[in-house]
Design brief:
Length: 85
């Protein structure tokens, strides 16, 4: 018995585990993204559904609150804001 495991690459999720009954699936976000809602760990239940809620990743990049904003740039470890004055 297994649970459905349908995720799209556009969700920026990385999965660790399998979809067999009682297996734990660990979710993490791609670099530069973070889980903003849902559950990081989900368990495959006897009724072929996952416990908890589907995790949602969002970019950690935030725009500058300034009229001088020219863009944002994400690197592999943190976000950096760029502005011109």
């Amino acid at each position: 018995m297994s649970c459905n495991c349908t995720y799209s690459a556009a969700e920026h999720l990385t999965l660790d585990g399998d979809n067999q009954y009682e297996s734990v699936l660990n979710h993490s976000c791609d670099t530069g993204w973070e889980i903003v809602s849902g559950d990081q760990l989900r368990v495959c239940l006897h009724n072929k559904t996952w416990s908890g809620f589907h995790p949602v990743c969002d970019s950690m990049c935030l725009p500058l609150p300034s009229s001088h904003f020219t863009g944002i740039r994400c690197d592999l470890t943190q976000y950096e804001n760029m502005s011109q004055f």
